[in-house]
């Protein structure tokens, strides 16, 4: 059986919309993978677990987005009791956020992470740019494959593949790789 080049398989998948987050057939499942300082606020970084694609041995395609800590806190207040109930159900079911594999979490930190993930999954906060990363797990490299934006009811996808970059230690993409690539 003939193997197709990775760029062809990924390109067809993106063109067909199977990775584009355009028409949702299943609920979103955003997971926290990092924290970073933005221009004026701390940003919380998420990856979308339900649409991770393993396109070739050792290669992973994953959508990411970031939300500001201010947005998350405002949503936390607005969601109120509903959010508390959702978080309590996950804690009671012994849910362990993937971020706990990167950083040891206290109980309060774990609750904050679960809360942030629930907020990221809320439809009211989904109009944020997203980046599709391609991870080369054995090569310890990554690149951007696509950028998706939604604004004023219009969505845009820029399918432009960047050059491969080496994975620097202790970076956000290194954390993502730790969670999604086999050891």
The main β sheet shows up as: 8 strands, antiparallel
The SS-based structural class is alpha+beta
Rg over C-alpha atoms, rounded to the nearest angstrom:
17 Å
Tell how many strands the DSSP assignment holds: 8
Describe this structure in words.
By secondary structure, this protein is α+β, with helices and mostly antiparallel strands. The chain has one domain. Strands 1, 2, 3, 4, 5, 6, 7 and 8 form an 8-stranded antiparallel sheet that branches. It is 32% helix and 30% strand. The chain is built from 4 helices and 8 strands, in the order H-E-E-E-E-H-H-E-E-E-E-H. It starts with 5 loop residues before the first helix and ends with a helix. Helix 2 packs across helix 3. The protein is globular, with a radius of gyration of 17 Å. Strand 5 and strand 6 form a beta hairpin.
Outline of the structure:
This protein is of the alpha+beta class and 183 residues long. Helix content is 32%, strand content 30%. The chain has helices spanning 6-16, 69-92, 107-120, 172-180, and strands at residues 30-37, 42-48, 53-56, 59-68, 130-136, 141-151, 154-158, 165-166.
């Amino acid at each position: 059986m003939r193997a197709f080049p990775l760029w062809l398989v990924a390109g067809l998948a993106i063109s067909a919309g199977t990775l584009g987050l355009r028409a949702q057939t299943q609920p979103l499942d955003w997971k926290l993978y990092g924290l970073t300082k933005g221009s004026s606020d701390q940003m919380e970084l998420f990856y979308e677990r339900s649409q991770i694609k393993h396109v070739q041995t050792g290669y992973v395609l994953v959508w990411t987005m970031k939300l500001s800590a201010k947005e998350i806190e405002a949503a936390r207040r607005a969601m109120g009791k509903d959010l508390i109930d959702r978080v309590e159900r996950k804690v009671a079911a012994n849910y362990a956020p993937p971020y706990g594999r990167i950083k040891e979490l206290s109980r309060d930190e774990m609750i904050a992470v679960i809360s942030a993930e629930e907020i990221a999954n809320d439809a009211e906060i989904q109009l944020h740019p997203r980046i599709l990363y391609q991870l080369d797990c054995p090569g310890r490299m990554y690149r951007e494959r696509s950028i998706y934006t939604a604004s004023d009811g219009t969505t845009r996808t820029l399918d432009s593949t960047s050059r491969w970059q080496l994975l620097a230690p202790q970076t956000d993409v290194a954390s993502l790789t730790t969670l999604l690539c086999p050891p």
